[in-house]
Amino acid sequence: MVQVKVFVQPHYLQNFVQATFNALGADKMKVLAENPSGATLVVSGDGRYYSKDAIQIIIKMAAANGLRRIWVGQNGLLSTPAVSAVIRERVAADGSKANGAFILTASHNPGGPNEVCARITSFLLSSVRHYGCACICSAPDFGIKYNMENGGPAPEGITDKIYSNTTTIKEYLIAEGLPDVDISKIGLSNFTGPDGQFDVDVFDSASDYVKLMKSIFDFQSIKNLLSSPKFTFCYDALHGVAGAYAKRIFVEELGAKESSLLNCVPKEDFGGGHPDPNLTYAKELVARMGLSKSGNNEDPPEFGAAADGDADRNMVLGKRLPYLNFRFFVTPSDSVAIIAANAVQAIPYFSGGLKGVARSMPTSAALDVVAKHLNLKFFEVPTGWKFFGNLMDAGMCSVCGEESFGTGSDHIREKDGIWAVLAWLAIIAYKNKDNLGGDKLVTVEDIVRQHWSTYGRHYYTRYDYENVDSAGAKQLMDYLVKLQSNLTEVNNIVKGIRSDVSKVVNADEFEYKDPVDGSISKHQGIRYLFEDGSRLVFRLSGTGSEGATIRLYIEQYEKDPSKIGRESQDALAPLVEVGLKLSKMQEYTGRSAPTVIT
């Protein structure tokens, strides 16, 4: 993804789209030859600024490139998981199915024509902290990605071709004479394109996805939970595309009160906010849950959740308890482990058992312990959902997740924020199936603490250094790689920083060989692995459009039941100090503190 001001430049979008069509050339010709009804593409996204213009351009280019039809979600809205579902599940009236999709999104990054600024005042919570008082400004982003026939992101072989094509492209094809399509109205529009009949089908954005969710979960069980006077619920779409599904699912299907929905009207600029589901940017949800610094006199909901811009990420919160001064935040690493541990009992889709589970390398090892306990196949993959997709297509993985608020299963080939929220509601409903009339419901905190008592607790935090000078970031990573060649020196440095930290027994750059296609992914993150199971992981992230982002992941595993109730920052303090000083973070970045701690 890049900044909006770059994408709106003349011919920029067109060149990228044509580069994609060219990369798909051989596959597209095969589809056209084998399918007399021609090729079909989905074109929609999270509704961010420039999406509507981009959709019209892509429609015209699709016609010029010989496609037969385009499917568009009403108003150009389809969540990333819904696009995957539409590709895999939807059959049009003429029997056609989608062959792929252009998804218009920049994920959890801000949108709109203007810079987004948020004033962050110093505060302290158990899972997210900011230091000082600062104005954090982000340039709005726009992005486009291509998903394949399986509903998942294009593999590296295709994305490499796309990139290569962008460096040599000399022309693009577009049917300029084709009129714009009114994407606000559901219906079929027929045109005569350069290669014959060309159709644009505008369809309801939510129907296919809602149907899929109802086939996975026991909606009646969840509805019973939501109807209990003892259970209250709050969902924040952050003005992203999740709002197009929230009312249909939570209110109309499950009976939640409409007042339980926050910011569920999709907006091109996400209401001037940053559509990232964390305690920093989901300010209204934090306030509703009784977590804001100013406090909240109303009784907070039992359960709160939020989505990002394209609805593939999620955050889950439990009720703030009287003896705590913070809400019960479920880390994404714990969330996927808890879902996997309870899926067979709580979610009908998995009643036959799990095929396997997987996590991204930076995600904590909580899922590993569940997999070992339940004798499940387990996979540790690089960051990127396409690696999960390969495992799912091969029937090797049912549930997967990543630490950056992404959780999903093999029902589609993308992470799925609403699915994750429904999974949590299903688990809560299952735990309370015989208790809805009792004095006290089993809560989010109860479920998490029971999980810790069974499997142990993985104390975990992530430090993000955003918009760091790229040269300094590269120097830091190069230094860490070089340091790995001498573990004796590493351990001398570690003991000089903290004598109470275990010794480093292994250090490497994570490399992954895909068990399905044999492909090898190198340089996927720098790891320092400690004797007691602790980990330090360093990665450069490329999801923003300015500078570099360094992510430092710190993990401490605790099996002693008497020690699983500590505050995360206390349990992790020794490793945090080692990570910052071992990497010379301040020296290379010039930063005395991270932008965000999660």
Describe this structure as you would to a colleague.
Its EC number is 5.4.2.2. Keywords: Carbohydrate metabolism, Glucose metabolism, Isomerase, Magnesium, Metal-binding, Phosphoprotein. One of its GO terms (biological process) is glucose metabolic process. This protein is an alpha/beta fold and 598 residues long. It is built from 19 helices and 29 strands. Strands 10-4-2-3-12-11 form a six-stranded mixed beta sheet, sandwiched between helices. Strands 23-26-27-28-22-29 form a six-stranded antiparallel beta sheet. It has a five-stranded mixed beta sheet with strand order 14-13-15-16-17. Helix 2 packs across helix 4, helix 2 crosses helix 6 and helix 8 packs across helix 14 (417-431). The longest helix is centred in the middle third of the chain and has 15 residues, at 332-346. The protein is globular and about 75 Å long. It starts with a strand and ends with a strand.
Which characteristics define this entry?
598 residues; 34% helix; alpha/beta; single chain; 29 strands; six-stranded antiparallel beta sheet; 19 helices; six-stranded mixed beta sheet; A-D-PHexomutase_C_sf; A-D-PHexomutase_CS
User: Strand sequence of the main sheet, in spatial order?
Assistant: 10-4-2-3-12-11
Outline the low-pLDDT stretches. Answer: 118-135
Biggest pleated-sheet summary = 6 strands, mixed
Share of β-strand residues: 15-25%
Helix content: 25-40%
